Amino acid sequence: MSASFVAVANLKGGVGKSTTTLMLADGLAYYFGANVLVVDFDPQANSSQMMLTERGLQMAYEQGKGVHKLLQQFSAGLPPNLADLILPNAVTLEELRKDERNDRRSGWISILPSHPSLRFTEMDVEERVYAGGMRPSELSNRLRQHFADALAPVASLYDVVLIDTPPYLSPLARAGLMLAETYVTPTLADPVSIWGTKQFSDWMAENIAADIAVRNFIVVTRFKNTRYARDAEHELRTIYLKNRTFGPTIPESVQALQAMDRADLDSYNTMRGKYGNLRGDVRRLSERFAGFLADRMGSDVPQLVRS
Ligand SMILES: Nc1ncnc2c1ncn2[C@@H]1O[C@H](COP(=O)(O)OP(=O)(O)O)[C@@H](O)[C@H]1O
Ligand SMILES: [Mg+2]
User: How does pLDDT run across 204-229, given as a tens digit for each residue?
Assistant: First the structure.
């Protein structure tokens, strides 16, 4: 058994990529007992910060853990060595922690974190290899290979690897997209966002995954139930991205903001405490996505362990 590799991606920023990454991680771990690895490819490090807190993010960096280390190994021509760079159980919901104590743990979440320095490391690599005559597309391919080699030995430990991606297409970002078999695309329901989502999808079809339509899972998020938003969502479903799988629409909610604001690295929360009324949405999101993986990708997804 090997993990399903999933990129959460949209070229537009602020559309809920990092939030959706975490909701999927929590939902799949909690409701499906899945073992989830979050890989943060975005130097903005939002999903890392949400999972680890700022203090934890800094600690991870000081301990030499994270994607930037893999990039340094690449830069130094060293074979990838991932084992020491992942933080196990980076965030564990209280119920999962109790399971662990009772030795019946049914899911966990680990993270390969990012750090703002990642972009600088990448720029150093770019400058050096381009001076040597390498083309950006070749660099992307080599990075993809390096990361694939790094992840291969640990892939069997996880059911799902969720790759959070930045809102641009640098070689590292493209490598992250190329690692994935399926793509979760969060979008807002407004004309600018849905058009951007369509552009991104076309670019993906041309450059990364010709069969994106069958591998794409769309999540309309931060939804305000207005006529305007309903019209945009309708247009997205019926014109721009018909034939795609749509997840549940996630409402705009302060609970989503609060859920991502972890008090402290040593503080744990229950699913109810973390998501409040939004946990039904988190459950539907993970349920629909687990179904998508099973139907479309033939993945052997874990069964529902809680309701
Ligand atoms: N369902 C939601 N309700 C309210 N705010 C949300 C929701 N989802 C995301 N947000 C907020 O919107 C902003 C952008 O979300 P984020 O996940 O960081 O997007 P991205 O990763 O695409 O840049 C963040 O401030 C986040 O907390
Ligand atoms: Mg983000």
Answer: 999 999 999 999 999 999 999 999 99
Name the residue among 149, 52, 176 with its Cα closest to residue 110: 52
Query: Ligand 1, closest atom to CA 186?
Result: 22
Do residues 244 and 216 lie in contact, with contact meaning Cβ atoms separated by under 8 Å? yes
**Ramachandran sector of residue 14 (left: φ over 0; alpha: ψ -120 to 50; beta: rest):** left
Q: Which of 54, 57, 15, 1 is nearest to 195 (CA)?
A: 15
Q: Is residue 85 part of a domain?
A: yes
- In sequence order, the 6+-apart residues with CB closer than 8 A to the CB of 210 are none
By residue range, what is the domain housing residue 118?
Answer: 4-297
CATH of the domain at 109: 3.40.50.300
Model confidence pLDDT, tens digit, residues 143-187: 999 999 999 999 999 999 999 999 999 999 999 999 999 999 999
Q: Is 206 inside any structural domain?
A: yes
* Closest CA to ligand 1's atom 13: 14
Measured from the Cα of 20, ligand 1's closest atom is: 17
For ligand 2, the distance from its centroid to the CA atom of residue 41, given in whole angstroms, is 9
pTM of the model: 0.96
Q: Indicate whether 166 belongs to any domain.
A: yes
